[in-house]
Amino acid sequence: MAFQSLLDYINAVVPLTKKEETTLLTYVTKRKYLKGQFILQQGDIAQQECFIVSGCTKMFHSDHSGQEHIILFAIENWWTSDIGSFISQTPADFNVQCIEDTELIQFSYHNIEALFEAIPKLERFFRKIIEKAFVATQKRIVRNFSLSAKERYVIFRDTYPELEQRIPQYMIASYLGITKEFFSKMKRQLLKE
Amino acid sequence: MAFQSLLDYINAVVPLTKKEETTLLTYVTKRKYLKGQFILQQGDIAQQECFIVSGCTKMFHSDHSGQEHIILFAIENWWTSDIGSFISQTPADFNVQCIEDTELIQFSYHNIEALFEAIPKLERFFRKIIEKAFVATQKRIVRNFSLSAKERYVIFRDTYPELEQRIPQYMIASYLGITKEFFSKMKRQLLKE
DNA sequence: AAAATATGTTAACCTATATTAACATCATTT
DNA sequence: AAATGATGTTAATATAGGTTAACATATTTT
How many Å from the CA of B71 to C1' of D11? Predict the structure, then answer.
């Protein structure tokens, strides 16, 4: 069942007892969204952190001229949320929208402190997954500074081969920080090489 | 004394008992570096996470053509380290170098697990500071995508007015992801407006 | 199956920022 | 105080990537 993938994921980082597993499940909820639906909208306050059981989402910022900038995709066994909004309960900078029908498990702000009281080792679990996410974003900043769009694309393709199959190219362009037109031109150049 | 700034900083997030404070101090070490010295070099494995008591550091990546890309400055009451290298004990992507004489307090990889056993609430402390750092880097990625260099500079200046006084401009240019020459041109344009 | 919508390509032209190189100024060392 | 090194400026030229607009091809919806 759907909760098993979450338990497997957590157990790989901090092993839980059966009792803790049962307790944990009383704190979370399962939810399904359809392709196109928003899990979070910019300006709203994030009430949930989401673990994705199946499907695919994008997190993006809409700038003053209406352009979308994708900063994160998430598929099975990944997490998504505007963490800044969640932890300080302030308006979100980001939208989270489903690009496939998506099933996910939600951790809610209203009871996450109680969950940490109930299962203190989850504090360590969340520390570790945030550490990994932080390292990934820091590396992305450097790559955006030091590499060309073409080099960043090759790294993206090699790092997330599954994603390239599931996601429209104009979204990959947005994730790379370039326009879809330039992305198209770039790929043609790559083929010629 | 120097350790007090660390204790104050931690107590603001997770209040410690006197006993815990004493315990904590047996796990950390104070160290001084001179301007120009490296706290960590790219390729080495980070053994420490550092809390800065006084002074100023830059963390940067040297790319294949030898160019420096600064991804973080740190002054009093900030943290610095290559977290990716520290948590997985792999070669660092970043250098950390002092741009002023710097005094700092080090948390070592070899005893940080023991420290978490001794004072479990530090797990929460580190989770919270990493969360904040993560949010900051994610916002930086969006700004790099959606704003011009001029807009990013104005935000930098407004967010860290102390930093602009202490740090040479060519390093601020590097932090913004532009060349020092373009930074110079940009500032002249800003004055004219 | 036609219409509508979403996705992808191409090409002409444009702009923000990089590169190179020369020079200016300031701080530190001898 | 001269010399050295670190920092900052200017200007000419170059380029990665953006913009606009038209068209092409899938994929859904009716």
Answer: 30
